[in-house]
Amino acid sequence: MDINDLVKEIKRKKSFLCLGLDSDISKIPSFLLDDPDPVFSFNKQMVDSLNEIITAVKINTAFYEENGSKGWITLEKTINYINSKYPELFTIADAKRGDIGNTSNKYAKAFFETLSFDSITVSPYMGNDSVEPFLKYKNKHTILLGLTSNNGSRDFQFFSNNSTTLFKEVIKRSKQWQGSDNLMYVVGATKSDYINEIRAIVPNSFLLVPGVGFQGGSLKKTFENGANKKIGLLVNSSRSIIYAGKGSDFLEKSYTVAKSYQIEMEDLISTLNH
User: Fold this and answer.
1) Fold (topology level) of 3-271
2) Residues 80, 44: contact at Cβ < 8 Å?
3) Domain range annotation of the chain
4) Between these two residues, 157 and 185, which has the higher pLDDT value?
5) Residues with catalytic roles
6) How do residues 140-161 score in pLDDT, each as one tens digit?
7) At what angle do helices 128-135 and 101-108 cross, to 10 degrees?
8) Helix pair angle (250-271, 219-226), 10° resolution
9) Which residues fall within 8 angstroms of residue 31, CB to CB, at 6 or more apart?
10) What is the pLDDT of residues 22-48, one digit of tens each?
């Protein structure tokens, strides 16, 4: 997807909400278990219900890979359904890949060509030659782990010397890589105090921001510190939306939560125009 098309969708829907399909068969409504593919049925209904108030869908591949070939089939069915029925939705493979160049080439082909995702999350730990194979694809986007929302992020990401902090150095160096215009960055909402520092390094890049909802990140603070003229944010929410209800009204409950985020986003977007 061309980044300008994503920006148009955000402005049209007045929403930069990303739906996280971390779909766990043990947590979906029990009456769906009679379906031949319960998780696909759950995903399909969720996207059908929410497509007009979300602009992106993030599929955490671990929730599918754990079930072997059956899970992979569910993942394929889910991405194929979204691409065919809702091509305007920006799709993210939350796979956190990153390996030596030859291996990364294969990962890039798997997710960008075979599965036709718009983007993939990638770990920068092995450096430029582990990331650049993803960056060579036109209108495909690589979302680099920048500053994550988990507690363990402080083990390495905040390592500092007298001049800089590791997460800032990673982001600065990534701008020098071939194809860096196709980079986006993961920045956890629970680290919103640092988002403005990251925005100063990458003023024009999109930031994928998990951690709103169950993890307690602030949407308002994230927007105030991270939005640019094109919005430049995709705020992901997974569990707080998809597991809002377990009864026959699960879609209505999920919609209520998602709509509350969208309404807040619409209010925040309106402040950019003043």
Assistant:
1) TIM Barrel (3.20.20)
2) no
3) 3-271
4) 185
5) 96
6) 999 999 998 888 888 888 889 8
7) 30
8) 40
9) 248
10) 999 999 999 999 999 999 999 999 999
